[in-house]
Amino acid sequence: MRYPLSPEMAQFIGKTLSFSVDSLEIADQRRSYSRMCEAFTPARPPQLEVKDFSLAGVAVRSYRPRRLSLEHPAPCVVYLHGGGWVVGDLDSHDFLTAALAVDLNAVVIAIDYRLAPEHPFPAGFDDCLEVWHALQIQALRLDIDPRRIAVAGDSAGGNLAAALCLALREAGERQPVGQALVYPGLGGADDLPSRRECFDAPLLSTADLDLYRQLYLPEDEHSPYAMPLNAKDFRGLAPAFIAVAQFDPLRDDGVCYERALREAGVSTEFDPGPGLVHGSLRGKGLVPEVDALYRRLVTALLGFLRITL
After folding, report:
1. At 262, which CATH number?
2. Kind and range of the H or E run holding 38
3. Out of 89, 93, 278, 280, which one is annotated catalytic?
4. pLDDT tens digit string along 225-249?
5. Identified catalytic residue from 248, 252, 253, 271
6. Catalytic: 278?
7. Is 233 a catalytic residue?
8. Active-site option among 62, 81, 93, 155
9. Beta carbons within 10 angstroms of residue 44's beta carbon
10. Tell me: the pLDDT tens digits for 58-112?
């Protein structure tokens, strides 16, 4: 492996890859991914109330800290999981959504959006947008403050979070108080330097990236809701925390998006992710550089949730 990784990161990658299967069947890939996720998922903190239900016909999971004040509606983070739009579900990112709820002392709503290839774009995006609208309408019933909702996501979930902000802006609707994107795939050009420099990076290669995109996107699809970097205008979008991984073919998607937002006057914070690979958030608690990323993510989200628009 030609990437200078810490021993802890190399061990995390080795354990992750031990769950890989040779089969290209989607069902086999999903089972393998679920087994891997389960191996990295600790017991939930006891101070959480967790409920599965539906919003706008889409399955969601709510994490509510028991120590939240009952006097005021709670701040909230809508979380969109990664997995190349093809794998992942409410359980795959429970390690992260449960921790965020506790560390932010906020409600976290995770969305189980439809997956490709059975449901290609715009199905998953539509699910996220429908849940967002339902959450705005039902916020007070759910004891959530509709003016203090941020959106966050990793990888494909970062794509969906950015697309959600674009769609709300185009509809003239209120933005989330912030968008937190972790190693997002944003439709960057195939000739970006990171595609070549990290073509064989661990856990996500350029070939993997191309495959996921083919499964999710209809041929010749260029909508900014599928590829946010295709947007013509980046003004008026939610303040952004954008974290990339140093050894990731998607690294420059985040670099380009942060620059586009900043040049359009959007407040941004950029995290270059030194020593990180794609998908390494799952190494939380095992890899020091991942723990550092997680702390920066929590700090950014806390900053967003203090803001009332």
Report:
1. 3.40.50.1820
2. helix 26-39
3. 278
4. 999 999 999 999 999 999 999 999 9
5. 248
6. yes
7. no
8. 155
9. 16
10. 999 999 999 898 788 999 999 999 999 999 999 999 999 999 999 999 999 999 9
